[in-house]
Design brief:
Length: 242
């Protein structure tokens, strides 16, 4: 049994992405489990042959070997023209259908139509992606217009989230991207964005001294559905419950 096929089996069976370290841990855990069983049965007087060499050879598997196995699998998929590949995202490795089969796969979900974001929404999302965490005032200083509506749309689509409050007068909300953002655009981190290192260093216009109204901030915080700290962020004066 080859390590690459073991990795493939784990990725197929798992409903969630698996990190390189987690895959290596699972492989080592299987070896340890087999060794413990052999020792226990030997102590009980049962004849038990040594573990096969291919299995004991996996006892010290690390991330490097897992990465090599993933590379081997992807090369095999490419060579044989398979309809899927293994990609790494923020939460780990996962099997994905290749893009060229997307129109066929979409037939499985007739009720879900692809939506295009407007230019203003993309501009707002790009500012947040490159300069996160960032306040609404800082976003508006770059765009030159109010962005409450754009922020609301991005929150509704789960592309951005409220990550806390800035240590500034009025403690304005801070916005950052979500895991869905990285999944949707096929990147692992901010560093994978085009020209990330250069654009993150560009000096942005300073926001005006006036802070957003408390009502606007409160409504945006309440709209961040799914945030475990949404209520506390929306009303920082309310103590959290134990």
């Amino acid at each position: 049994m080859q390590l690459s096929t073991i990795v493939e089996a784990l990725l197929i069976a798992s409903q969630n992405p698996l990190t390189t370290e987690e895959i290596a841990r699972l492989v080592r855990a299987r070896v340890a489990e087999a060794e413990d069983l052999r020792i226990r049965e030997t102590e009980e007087g049962k004849e038990n042959p040594p573990l096969p060499e291919w299995l004991t050879g996996l006892a010290a598997i690390g991330p490097e070997e897992i990465l090599a196995a993933v590379t081997e699998l992807n090369a095999a998929y490419e060579e044989t023209g398979r309809a899927f590949t293994i990609l790494e995202r923020t939460k780990g490795w996962k099997l994905y259908t290749r893009m060229e089969y997307g129109e066929f796969v979409r037939q499985l979900f007739p009720g879900r139509k692809p939506e295009r974001m407007s230019g203003p929404a993309m501009e707002t999302l790009a500012i947040i992606a490159y300069r996160q965490p960032i306040t609404k005032a800082a976003i508006e200083a770059v765009r030159g217009v109010a962005c409450d509506g754009m922020l609301q749309k991005l929150l509704d689509r789960d592309l951005i989230r409220i990550g806390g409050r800035a240590e500034l007068p009025g403690r304005p909300l801070l916005y950052s991207t979500t895991d869905l953002f990285f999944e949707h655009f096929g990147i692992r981190s901010i560093d994978d964005l085009p020209n990330a290192s250069e654009l993150r260093k560009v000096k942005l216009p300073e926001p005006e001294a006036a802070q957003p109204t408390a009502d606007a901030e409160h409504q945006l915080a309440l709209s961040a559905v799914g945030s475990p700290a949404a209520a506390e962020i929306a009303d920082p004066e309310t103590p959290s419950q134990a």
